[in-house]
Amino acid sequence: MTDTQFLLPESSIPDHWYNVVADLPRPPEPPRAPDGSALTPQALEALFPPALIAQEMSTQRWVPIPDAVRDIYRLWRPAPLYRAHRLERALDTPARLYYKYEGVSPAGSHKPNTAVPQAWYNAQAGVRRLTTETGAGQWGSSLAMAGQMLGVDVRVYMVRVSYDQKPHRRSMMQTWGAEVIASPSPHTAAGRAVLESQPESPGALGIAISEAVEEAAARADTNYALGSVLNHVMLHQTVIGLEAREQMALAGDYPDVVIAPCGGGSNFAGLAFPFVADKAAGRAVRLLAVEPASCPTLTRGAYAHDYGDTAGLTPIMRMYTLGHDFVPPGIHAGGLRYHGSAPLVAQLVHEGIVEARAVPQLATFEAGVLFARSEGIIPAPESNHAVRAAIDEALEARHSGQPRVILFNLSGHGHFDMASYDRYFAGELRDYDYPEAAIADALHGDGWNVVVHAHTSIGAARELAESLNARRPDSAVAVAADLRDAAAIEPLAKAAHARWQRLDALVNNASSYHRTPLGAIGVAQIDELVASNLRAPLLLIQACAPLMGEGGAIVSISSNGGMGFSRRIPTIMQLLQVPDYAAQVKWCEDNADTVREGYAFSKECIIVWTMLMSNQLIKKGIRINCTMPGPTQTPMMSHFEQATKASVL
Ligand SMILES: Cc1ncc(COP(=O)(O)O)c(C=O)c1O
Question: Bridge-partner residues for 555, per DSSP?
Fold first, then answer.
């Protein structure tokens, strides 16, 4: 058997950080000032010392690491790389699994890799006080430790839900001399604004960032430090991947896939960016960022300009975002509850160089427990996201019978997260969707007025509309309609238009699912699938398009289940040309073999219809698109799982 640990001597601590900007196919888009104007380095001086501003804007491939910083890195770097022999055996996989373990730092995660240089550059510039935010508590404790070592006072705004879940993270920060405040707090205008509209707010990283930035901008003696997202943070973390590349060489291996959890993006960038350089040089390596299904920034967010914080105090950056006022559910991976993403990671996802995947909470804890029981280390809930994806890749290797080399980042240990594990074992954790309510919420946050349609869940839709109206009066309304009833559709479109005398966008999202195996297809099921998944969106598009002006937009949610459409375009065209509904249902019955998987077929039809209509609608200045978001934890997914479990899994 090969070795389990691959260790480097202290002399191998990198002496330069790697700047991925030098290897991007296109230069990154510069950030903008909060008012949208060009951002000057001077504008950042209220928050950051000059050396960090220069790193933020740097295009230089290698940036030297100061000796004083390397000297502190010696306390835990180089971090070990492990081959997960025991996990491989537990999974009975031909895959070779390796993990880089960042939990050996004093604070227990990768975060000190940037906390130390940030505190050091501030101290060099004569700054003796820093504010920051923390989600999981890992970043706050890292900066507290670094500040203590370098003579800088630290005040941490800690996201409320983590403040309550992790009292010992608070104690750690206090041990290292920092002051800890639950966010949203009454100390800042940003915190007070949130508390006014939502006194029970669980907080979010975006809100805590607003508070820390507001305070630093207002005080001459105080700078601000951010634990993720910004280019200089990504840069500092690359010590992880630079070491890992050397350690993989020691193991005589090279990864097929590099995996890391992704919140703001820093530990992902740290491990993966040095492999981007290899990829740019032609080496085949997949890079996979893993995020929570309840806060699916990279997989479901828009690639758009947005603020890094909730109150709109930070610069505007191009990134994947769920809207800067999106408050994710209180999952137990606090470090991943962020509405946005690092612009550099987002750009790499956008360019197809990095892949992203979203995983639900329970599956991540299940993976973390299996990991702990085989490898011994108890991972942080954030790190469990990478463990989950690494296990899934290893299982995939088992199914295909092909070995593959998997490298993942175990970004931190979970010793201060045991209350979360307790709740998992007690069956008290649950999966959260990024439900349709959240789409409405995020659009609303971007200034749209929304008409929330619902059928059976009209109560929840009314509650949502009320909460949106509490935030911005007269901005949301809930409307009930059964979309299977053709007669209900035109009035629905008219009511939506009548509310504000305009209609700018339609999101066709409603859908139903039944299994329809050959030999068991009932007329009623065909009827329902065709009515809700095909006829309703078609009629809605027809009813809404004339009410939209130029610039209108229509999005229909299809499914990966509809991917077979290209093989069947002629057949689908036959159905789309059948004029009336009864005849359509008859066509489906007569072609039972074709519509065998009724759900998938209805989604194929939507794709073809979207292509057909785009021609006509674009002449009216209306865009129409169809998306296939991939398996997504929505309430429908549980019906799908129940229906397919026995026969498919
Ligand atoms: C252990 C751990 N892993 C991952 C993350 C996610 O942050 P990032 O994406 O910046 O690495 C955090 C954030 O707090 C964390 O504490």
Answer: 507, 625
- Asked whether residue 647 carries a pLDDT value surpassing 80, the answer given is no
Q: What's the pLDDT score for residue 84?
A: 98
Same domain assignment for residues 450 and 506: no
Domain boundary among 425, 449, 464: 425
Other Cβ atoms less than 10 A from the Cβ of 459: the count is: 11
Q: 563-613, pLDDT tens digit by residue?
A: 778 888 888 888 888 888 888 888 888 887 777 777 788 888 888 888 888
The answer to whether position 398 is within a domain reads: yes
Is residue 265 lining ligand 1, measured as CB closer than 6 Å?
yes
Residue 45 lies in a domain: no
Q: Read off the CATH number of the domain in which 531 is found.
A: 3.40.50.720
> Quick one: 101 and 250 in the same domain?
yes
Q: CA 377, CA 110: separation in Å to the nearest integer?
A: 15
Tell me: do 419 and 443 sit in the same domain: no
Q: For strand 81-83 and strand 96-101, is the pairing parallel, antiparallel, or unpaired?
A: antiparallel
Residue predicted with more confidence, 443 or 374: 374
474 and 514 in a common domain? no
Is 632 a residue whose pLDDT tops 80? no
Range among 218-222, 296-300, 507-511 rated most confident: 218-222
Cβ of residue 262 lying under 6 Å from some atom of ligand 1: yes
Share of residues in the chain with pLDDT > 70 (%): 93
- What total number of domains does the chain contain? 3
Same-domain check for residues 415 and 556:
no
Q: Say yes or no: CB of residue 342 within 6 Å of ligand 1.
A: no
143 lines ligand 1 (CB under 6 A): no
pLDDT at 518: 63
Domain extent at residue 498: 484-648
Domain holding 406: CATH number? 3.40.50.1100
Token couple for 560: 């990966």
DSSP 122-170: HHHTT--EEEEEESSSHHHHHHHHHHHHHT-EEEEEEEHHHHHH-HHHH
Q: How far apart are the first and last CA of the chain?
A: 33
Same domain as 505, residue 394: no
The residue whose CB lies within 8 Å of the most ligand 1 atoms, and thus the one to mutate among 118, 138, 166, is 138
224 Cα–ligand 1 center, Å: 19
Using pLDDT thresholds of 50, 70 and 90, give the confidence band for residue 645.
Answer: very low
Rounded Cα distance, 358 and 336, in Å: 11
Residues shown for the chain = 649
502-532 residues labelled b (16+ CB within 10 A) or e (exposed): ebebbbbebbbbbbbeeeebeeebbbbbbbb
